Fold:
Amino acid sequence: MSMPRASLLFPALTLALLLAATDGSAQSPSRDVKLAGMGIRKCTEWQQWKDARNTESRAMVLEWAQGFIAGHNIYARSGSTTTSPVVASVAVLIPLLDAYCQKNPEQRIFSGVVEITQSLGGAKVNITPKATPPRAPQPEQKGRLDS
Structure:
């Protein structure tokens, strides 16, 4: 029994689209990271919230941290090296983040969570900001009126 031509065409087109969509990104994935949320706050704030018993702000940071760790686990699986997923309960995160922020009050909470994640067996992540490449001089535009 032969399959109709249309039923063979759909899987072939799907495969072609998937290959085309992953062609460039599979070879050189972009790993630039943009951050927002509680992780960009400084450790001094984390310590102030502890001293003021501001459990709401600290809870928001811990939720952010656990979300970051979940994202880290997904990111780590997409690379070529295999790392174990990191699972950190609030009971684990609080003393580790307290210790990090006490030693590094001017650092961002994000940096502490990255260090904690790596200390728990997570993938090594380079968080050093990239320097912006110098722009090439632009040629003068002829015919432009200067006023």
